[in-house]
Specification:
It is built from eight helices and two strands; from the N terminus they run ααααααββαα. By secondary structure, it is mainly α. It folds into two domains: 2-8 and 22-97; 101-168, no CATH class.
């Protein structure tokens, strides 16, 4: 029981001093929280599989308090994990939205990168803000295609939409008037 009780006790953070090392990254903080969640889950499981510790004896009160604390800390830690994961997703979305067109296209299209860049160059000269009547963006997708496959202001969002269209069409570039100049 000592280990289970120890798992529920946590360190309190102290005040930040000027010479303290920089704060840990989001990834480091998430890893630490996930480790804490595993420890708290282990403590909860320990007591739930040993109900007799909670029911009688001199240690029952301490055991019940340790279980309550482990459940409370687990709930708080899960909420922290959720917040950290959301922050990481937002940061990644900002990073992807800031990619230049060529990198965004290659990131999305993978082994079809060269072909996709050729098509986007022909269609829009790699300009996400290109417009030709109803056709918009890097891949000059029409209104119906944008409705079906999505669209967005960033090169990455437009490349993802074009990739969905590309996959749905059989990966043969048939929907576009521009075709890749070199085939692999």
């Amino acid at each position: 029981m000592t280990q289970a009780v120890a798992a529920t006790t946590g360190e309190r953070s102290s005040q930040v001093r000027p010479n303290d090392p920089p704060s840990p990254s989001l990834e480091d903080r998430l890893e630490r929280k996930l480790d804490l969640a595993r420890r708290y889950r282990g403590a909860v499981r320990f007591f739930e599989t040993r109900r007799w510790l909670l029911e009688s004896g001199a240690q029952a009160r301490d055991a019940r308090a340790a279980l309550r604390r482990a459940r409370l800390l687990l709930a708080r830690t899960r909420a922290d994990v959720t917040r950290l994961r959301q922050a990481l997703r937002r940061r990644e979305a900002r990073r992807l939205a800031a990619l230049p067109p060529r990198r965004a296209i290659c990131d999305v299209f993978g082994r079809y990168c060269d072909q996709a860049v050729d098509v986007a160059w022909c269609e829009s000269r790699l300009r996400p803000d290109a417009r030709n009547g109803q056709y918009l963006g890097l891949f000059q997708m029409g209104a119906r295609e944008r409705q079906l496959f999505g669209h967005g202001p960033s090169a990455y969002a437009q490349a993802r939409a074009a990739h969905r269209y590309f996959v749905r069409s059989g990966r043969d570039w048939s929907p576009w008037s521009c075709k890749p100049w070199r085939w692999e």
